[in-house]
Write the structure tokens for this entry.
Amino acid sequence: DPVLVWNPAKGAWWMFYTQRRAKIDAPGVEWCHGTEIGVAESKDLGMTWSYLGTLPLSHPDAGYSFWAPDVIRDESGRFHMFVSYVPGPAETHRDWGGERHILHYASSDLWRWTFERRIPLSSDFCIDATLFKTPQGAWRMWYKDEGHGSKTLAVESRDLKSWRPVEDPGVSKLYGEGPKAFRFKGHYWLIKDPNSGLDVYRSADLNTWADQGKILDKLGT
């Protein structure tokens, strides 16, 4: 679950990611829990990386997991992180059950983060936020709602404080893990994981999406 952000104070790219405990011997999917957000730094355009540690994010529970961060920068230069949060100690998660939410943190230096709010979403089982600014000036967030068939749903905000649901039927009807929205070669794109390669969607306005088919679902060159 990596996201890359330019750190202007450091003159480097910072990568934030889910720091999984993949080397431990634990029952079920316990190793996917009890996780922090790791940070790595590159000063040579991604050729080499240095590990910086894990973010000291505040949390409401003694036991918890952080997953799948996304980071944006607002007009004032302040950074905002939207990260999946699972309450409860790792050993209580032998399967994928339990509530999960998306929390909002803010920072001026990408290391010290202040908790802002829990984002009000369509269920108590939402993860994998991705954000992009619409041509109309609002921030749109897509996310996976595991409480509603793991569909990709969306909310929108103009101030990153008040959020309202928005219809985005071009990408919402199908299952998808880890949606990611970005701009590339004059179009908006959204890629998500349907457990078989990656589904690709393209849009001119972030409202109407055209399915571009799958990538990485079979061997290629």
